[in-house]
Amino acid sequence: MVISKVNASAATLTKNRTEGSVVPTSGMCVTCVDGCIGMCEIGKSAYRGHEVIYPQPFGVITTAAEKRFPVDYSHFNIMGTCVGAHGIEADSDKAIFPNVDLTVRFGHDKGIKFRRPWIIPGIGSTAIAKNNWEGLAIGSALMGTGLTIGENVVGMDPGAVFKDGRVVDTVDLKRRVELYRRYQRDGYGTIVVQANIEDTRLGGQEYAIEKLGVECVELKWGQGAKDIGGEVKIPDLKKAQMLSQRGYIVLPDPFDEEVIKAFERGAFKEFERHSRVGMITEESFAKRIEELRAAGAKYIFLKTGAYRPADLARAISFASKYRLDLLTVDGAGGGTGMSPWRMMNEWGVPPVELHSLLYQYASHLAGKGAYLPAITVAGGFAFEDQIFKGLAMGAPFVKLVGMARGPIAAAMVGKTIGRTIDAMQVPVYIERFGNSKDEIFVTASELRRELGEEEFEKLPTGALGLYTYFERLTQGLRQIMAGSRKFALEHISRNDIAALTPDAARVSGITYIMDVDKEEAFNLL
Fold it and tell me: Where does the Glutamate synthase domain start and stop, copy by copy (predicted)?
């Protein structure tokens, strides 16, 4: 059943008066009463208007869709076996889950190496991203996985310096890149700088390549959360004016005298900064790839969202023709920052459907002998079973899974725990494990040993939170892979998962569970 919560949600801080009796189509209360103060989304829109389009409160939350899609990754189960081993000798003393190899190499020269098959695919200019960057950057670098600096970071930086409309120095982008690099170990992982239209106009990627030594850059067509450009809320008039001068769409006009007066008297408390939508053509795409390579980019990625199938075909075709190094395909419903709530729920191709089409298109190109980049799938992944299913669904083309909300949650929790430790007010729920970093974070002793006392003490607890979450995913994924007898990532196949419903089988092309091994089973009998 497909269910949308259409008129009330925690995301918009709204609820129905008659919560037990709601009209399915409109989401309105069965009896809408004259005299109600307007707790639902319609009611709140009557006095706050466009503000109710977005999840709230902005800056301290991440948000994803509540819609239940017809098919999702829970409609598939992982197939295990008691026979043999792939990628290791079939010996019970050797085929143990700690020996599962989770490293992955990709890029045109296989020069990018990750210790784990996942990447954080775009943490940009929102407050929630900036406020948790320490944890995200350091935790990712220590684990040897990828991290993408998302759109608008240069344009949003009050400390950035521009000359003739192009950036020549930054504070925030420089900090983000250097923080990751400082904790990178043995060349594993990579930091990626993404760009949208405004970033491209400001020369953000050229600056990152030439001044910061960034090797990986990513073009952004969009994401699974929305069909428009990046958006943030700005509570400061001067900053809103600065962003308008840098070329962003800022609503309402921060230079309009009447708007300024309304803001100052508290009629509204936040401006909105919007990015433009892209206008993709093969000619402009080819030109931009040429520009980036001429600027010194070693690896070029593309991220696309949950657009219609022809756009997915366009993305993989361009990525193939222009020999990109990574293509990220993000399914509908995801999101980390500010996206219109209704759009997030009701727009785009859901993950299973999108990733199934992706497999079809990749197979078609591979059948013609075409070059294919490594592929990342994204859209609601958070745990090891989901990572395995995403890799299996797109095997052998999918090399990575993209995750954002899960890692941000882990970094935020780690940061919050650190604050309670410093204040000597550790909550009872946490205090049962102890009152210090070493007692609470299960990976602390390992990191203290690896980094040394002095370096460990500098680690922010947000980074400990992310690293420890990644450690859990590592062991969980190794256990699942060992159960499927796949001891290296390249051995994962579509045959390692089964569809639990005929609909899931029809959409994905994955075998229905009652038909798995049918011929082999009857031969054995």
Answer: 280-400
